[in-house]
Amino acid sequence: MQITVLGAGAWGTALAAQAARHHPTLLWGRDADQIAAMARERRNQRYLPDVALPESLAYVADLDAALAHAGAHGLVILATPMAGLRGMLARIPADHPTLWLSKGFEAGTGRLGHEIAREVAPSLRCGVLSGPSFALEVARQQPTALVAATSDTALREAAVAALHGGSLRVYGSDDPVGVEVGGAVKNVLAIATGIADGMALGLNARAALITRGLAEMTRLGLALGARAETFMGLSGLGDLVLTATGDLSRNRRVGLLLAQDQTLDQILAELGHVAEGVYSAHTVLERARQCGVEMPITAAVVAVLQGRMAPRAAVGLLMQREARNE
Question: Name one Pfam family in it (predicted).
Fold first, then answer.
C-alpha cells in the first residue's frame, strides 16, 4: 500500500518511519529546507534528533506530489496539530482514504475531527488514529498499541492491515466519537495530574485525579454519542494513564511547571512544542457546558491556565466539593 504522511513533526515522522518499514511511504512537510535536511541526513534534527530514519522513507515538500503518491488506493495520514486539521482536510481529494492523528477540540468552533471532516469534506472516507503513544518511543520501535476508529468498515480494515505489524499493534473501532473525546480530554487531565505531582500531593492524589478525570471524560463522551466501553480502552484509559504519568508528556510537564509558579508564557517558551491541552482546555469546558456535563477538574485546570486561580487554590476547591456517590 502507498502511504503518505502529511506533517513532519515528531509524531508524523515517527509514524512515517514505522510505515516505511512495510510499505512505500512518503513524508511531506511544508518547510522545504527541513525536508531537504531530513532526506540528506536521515534524521529529523528538529524533533527526533537521536533517531535514525529508515533508508526506505522518502520525503517531499510538494503537497500535490505527496497526495498523488497515496492516490485512491493508498492511505493518507494527517499528522498536524488540531489547529491545522481543517485546512488540510479541505485539500485532500475525496477519493483518498484518510486518517488523522490530531487530538483535541478545534478552538473557536469546539468541533472534534470527525465533525470538522463532515463539514469541510463530507465525501471523504476518513477516521482517526489514536491511543497511548509517545512519538519518541514509536520512532525507537518500542512496543505500542493504537486504535483506528471510523464507521467505514473497509477503511478501518485497510488501516489495520497497513499499520499493524512489528512493534506496532493496531486495533479497530467503530466509535470515532469516543476515541476522539478520549484523545482530547486526556491532555487537559494530564495538566491537572502534573500540577498535583508538582505540588508533591502524593500517589493517592494522582490516582484520584486519573480516576475522577476518566469519569469526566466518559460523561462528556456519552453526551456526544460515544459508547462507554471505549473509555476503558486504548484511547481512553490507556492514553490518559500515559499522558498523565509519563515523563515524555508535554501536557504533564505544563502542570509540573505551573506548580512551580512559572507563568504560562514561560512554560510554552521552554517547551518549544505544542501542548494541546493548553489550547483545548477552555474549548473542552465550553463543549461540556453546552451539553450540560459537569467537569470540575477540567474547570479547575482552565482557571489555573487563565491565571484566575493559583494551583493550590484550585486543589482546595476540588477537595471542598460536596460528597456524593461515585
Answer: NAD_Gly3P_dh_N
Identify the three-state secondary structure at position 230: helix
Closest Cα to residue 157, out of 165, 148, 166?
148
11 is in an annotated binding site: yes
Phi, psi of 147 (to 5 degrees): -130, 130
Phi, psi of 202 (to 5 degrees): 105, 170
Residue 71 is labelled as binding a ligand: no
DSSP 180-227: HHHHHHHHHHHHHHHHHHHTT--HHHHHHHHHHHHHHHHHHHHHTT--
Would you please indicate which residues are annotated as catalytic (active-site) residues? 186
The one-letter amino acid code at 53 reads L
Please report how the helices 176-198 and 276-290 are oriented relative to each other, as an axis angle in degrees rounded to 10.
120
Give the other-Cβ count within 10 Å of 10's Cβ.
21
Residue 166 φ/ψ region, left for φ over 0, alpha for ψ in the -120 to 50 degree band, beta for the rest: left
3-class secondary structure, 4:
strand
- Please indicate if the annotation marks 324 as binding a ligand: no
DSSP code at position 43: S
Task: Give residue-wise pLDDT tens across range 146-171.
Answer: 999 999 999 999 999 999 999 999 99
Q: What 8-state DSSP symbol labels residue 22? A: T
Question: Mean pLDDT over residues 220-232, rounded?
Answer: 98
Alpha carbon distance 116, 81 (integer Å):
14
* Residue pLDDT, tens place only, 271-309: 877 788 898 999 999 999 999 999 999 999 999 999 999
pLDDT given at position 191: 96
Q: Using 50, 70 and 90 to split pLDDT, how confident is the model at 322?
A: confident
